[in-house]
Amino acid sequence: MIEASHYTAAGTRRDAKFALPAELFDGTVNEPVLHQAVKVYLNNQRQGTAKTKGRSEVSGGNQKPWKQKGTGRARQGSTRAPHWRGGGIVFGPQPRDYTTGMPRQVRQLARRSAFNARAREDNLLVVERLAFDAPKTRRLTALLGRLGAEDAKVLVLTNGHNPNVYLSGRNLPTVQVMSYADASAYHILWSDKVLVEEAALTGVEPEITEEPEAAEETVRTVRTVKTAKKTAKAAKSAAKAEKKTVKAAKKTAKAASKATKAAKKPAKAKSAKKPAPKKKGGK
Predict the structure, then answer these.
(1) What is the SS3 assignment for 127-172?
(2) Distance separating the N- and C-terminal Cα atoms of the chain
(3) Whether the Cβ atoms of residue 82 and residue 89 lie closer than 8 Å to each other
(4) What number of CA atoms fall less than 13 Å from residue 198's CA on the CB side?
(5) Do 81 and 88 contact (CB within 8 A), yes or no?
(6) Nearest to residue 2, comparing CAs of 128, 154, 23?
(7) Mean pLDDT per segment of 10 residues, for the chain of length 283 residues?
(8) Residue 176 belongs to what H/E stretch?
(9) 33: closest CA among 185, 183, 192?
C-alpha cells in the first residue's frame, strides 16, 4: 500500500499518513507509455498553421529574365525559382493537422504511472479540503508555504470544479488548478508536487478539523508583531540620527560664534625691537 502525506485544510501536517486507493496507486510506472502520452499531448497542442509559398505561389517571374543563348550567363527560366532571392521555398511547411490519437487504456495507464511516480517520490500531498469562500491568491500562497511548496511547480487537483480555488491560483505562474478528473499524465509530470483534495480520492467529503481562518489569523498576528518591531527599530534609528544632527549643528554654531568673536577683536600691533647701539672702544 502506498501512502502520502496528509494535511488539514489549514496546512497542518497530520501524524498519520493517508492510504492511497490501491486501484489507482499500484506502484506501476511505465516510462515508454509516459513518453508516448507526453508526445501525444504536445502534438495536440500544435495549431498546424505554418505555411510557405512555392514557386507557383510567389508573385512575379512570369517571363524569362534573359534570352536563352548569347549572354554568357547560365540559362534561367524564371526569377522565382527556388535558388533566386525572393523565389519559392522547396519542401517548406504546409498547413496540416497534428492531432494524434491514443487508446483509452494506454492513456489511463500513463495517468496511473504519472501518479505512481509522484507518490513514489513523496511529492503527492493530500489535503482534507480546499474550503475557499472567495477567491484569495494570498490565502492559497500561504497554504502552499505551510506545505513547503512555495518554490515548486504545484498542480492543485480539486474535487470537481471549484471556481474559488481556480481563481485564487490563476495569477500564480507556478501553480495550475484543475479538476482531479481532468488531469492528464502531462500535467502531473509538469509539476514538482501534486496537491489533491481528499474527497477526490475517496469520493467522501471529510469534515474540516481545523479552520483555515484560525491559521490565517495566527499568521496575520505574527506579521503584525514583526511589523511593529520593525517600526520601533526604525523609530530608534531615526531618534539617534536626529541626536547626531543636533549635536553637529551645535558644534557648527559654536565654531561660527568663535570665528565671529575673533573677527571683532582688533589686531595688536607688534612693537619692533631696535638694535642695541655698538660700544666704541670696547667700553
Answers:
(1) ECCCCCCCCCHHHHHHHHHHCCCCCCCEEEEECCCCHHHHHHHCCC
(2) 134
(3) yes
(4) 20
(5) yes
(6) 23
(7) 90 91 90 97 96 95 94 95 96 96 96 95 93 92 92 94 94 95 95 94 75 60 82 89 87 84 64 60 52
(8) strand 175-179
(9) 185
CA distances from 122 to 32, 142, 232 (A): 22, 21, 43
Which single residue is written with the C-alpha cell 502525506?
5
Whole-angstrom distance, CA of residue 165 vs CA of residue 86: 53
| Grid cell locating 240 | 539617534
Assigned C-alpha cell, 252:
557648527
Question: Is 160 in contact with 192 (CB distance < 8 Å)?
Answer: no
Residue with cell 511547480: 153
* Grid-cell match 521555398, residue found: 89
For cell 667700553, the residue is 283
CA distances, 113 to each of 26, 76, 125 (Å): 9, 60, 17
